[in-house]
Amino acid sequence: MGLASIASAETPMLKITILDTPGHRRLIVEGKLIAPSAAELSSAYKRATADLHGREFLIYLKNLTIISEDGENVILELMKEGVGFRCSGVFTKDVLKRLARKIRIDGQTEKR
Fold this sequence. Notes:
By secondary structure, the chain is α/β, with parallel strands linked by helices.
C-alpha cells in the first residue's frame, strides 16, 4: 500500500493524500477547498488517474471545513466526468447531494 501527500504550494489550507493499494487508488481531500487551491484538486486528479492500470478510483472528501464556489465547480466538473465521491460530515454530504441533483436537473434539461 502506498501513501503520498500533495500539499498545495499556494496555501497550506488544503491537504490531498493519495492512498494506493493493488485494487484501488483514493484521493483523500481535507481542509479548505477554496480558490486558488481548489484547482489543485483537478491537477491531483489528473496526476492520480494517469497510471491507474485498471484500479478503481475514488475521491474521499474528509474533514472539509469550507467549500467555496470554486471548490464546488471543481467537484461538479469531476462528477460530470464520472468520478466517484465519498465524504464524511453533514456539510460535505449536503454539498455533494446538491451538486449531484444539479447534474441530474441539467441532464434532464439537455434532453428536452
